Amino acid sequence: MGKQAPPLLAGALAIALAAGVADARAQPRRSAAVFISPSGEPFRPTPGGPAPFDVWFSRVDARHEGRIDRAEFRADAIAFFRRLDANGDGVIDGFEISAYEMTIAPELNEQTDGGGAGRAYYALLNEPEPVSGADLALDLRISLAEWLAATDRRFDLLDVRKSGFLDHDALVGRLPKATRAGLAPAKTGKDRP
Fold first, then answer.
1. Domain-located, residue 188
2. How many alpha carbons fall within 13 Å on the CB side of residue 41?
3. pLDDT of 134-149, one tens digit each?
4. Could you give the CA distance from residue 98 to residue 106 in angstroms, rounded to a whole number?
5. Is residue 191 part of a domain?
6. For 81, what's the count of Cα atoms within 13 Å in the CB-facing half-sphere?
């Protein structure tokens, strides 16, 4: 038989394990992962705040209808394009792509165990790097025309019913199950007081 731990050490280990379990139960079950929007903009969780997906959705759903139409989706993408185009020349160049990957959304560079477990971010589309994914000419220069073509392609991929809008609850259904806890149901204008 193997050696047994001295009673004092065994008791200390039991207390430490029990404290760890109690501490884990006290933690909210909401995901601490960053949401990466279809255009690649990161939305980080805040303590006690709404889920990052809900922050993005409510910002894009300008009319608060519980759904996003193509114009709203494009407006959000254009706003992020302008943020990425740091020098304002109308093109996201290689330096600006690098700045995006290193400072704006460094979570995209974090390694996982290969199966996605423990991933630092979640997204609606399985696109490893959404900004570079818009470089249709593969020349490390993304024009606004390329950006909007990628934006429309993403909208079409998400609009599986071809209804012309992206419904909140249908988008939530595309998220990984572990990130759905804590998401708010869709709020429309008629839900407001």
1. no
2. 20
3. 999 999 999 999 999 9
4. 10
5. no
6. 23
Nearest to 166 by CA among 154, 182, 178, 183: 154
In whole angstroms, what separates CA 142 from the centre of its chain?
22
The Cα diameter of the chain in Å comes to 74
pLDDT value at position 177? 80
How many domains would you assign to the chain?
1
Dist CA 193 CA 176 (whole Å): 32
Mind listing the pLDDT tens digit for each residue in 6-18? Answer: 554 444 434 444 4
Domain, as residue range, for 159: 34-177
Instruction: Please state, in angstroms and rounded to a whole number, the distance separating the CA atoms of residues 59 and 43.
Output: 11
Strand, helix or coil for residue 180: helix
Model confidence, pTM: 0.75
Give the amino acid at 171.
L
Q: Is residue 183 part of a domain?
A: no
Encoded amino acid at 98, one letter: S
> Residue 136 carries which side chain, given as an amino acid letter?
L
Residue 131 lies in a domain: yes
